[in-house]
Amino acid sequence: MNKWIGIEEFVATIKTGSLSQAAIDLSTSKSNVSKKIAQLETRLNTKLVYRHKQKIALTSIGKIYFEQAMTLLDALNQADARVSNEQDLMVGEIKLLVPPGVTESVLIPIMHNFRLQYPQVTFSFISSVKSSCLLENQADLAFRYSQTIEEHLIARPLFSSTYRLCASPEFIHRHGHPQHPNALASLDCLNYASQLTTQAAQWTFQHHSSLEKVTVSPKTVLQSNSVDSLVKLCQLGSGILYCSNIFVQQALNEHSLHSLLDDWINESNQLWLVYVDRQAQSKRVKTFIAYTLSQMHLLGL
Question: 0.85 cut: is pTM over it?
Answer without folding.
Answer: no
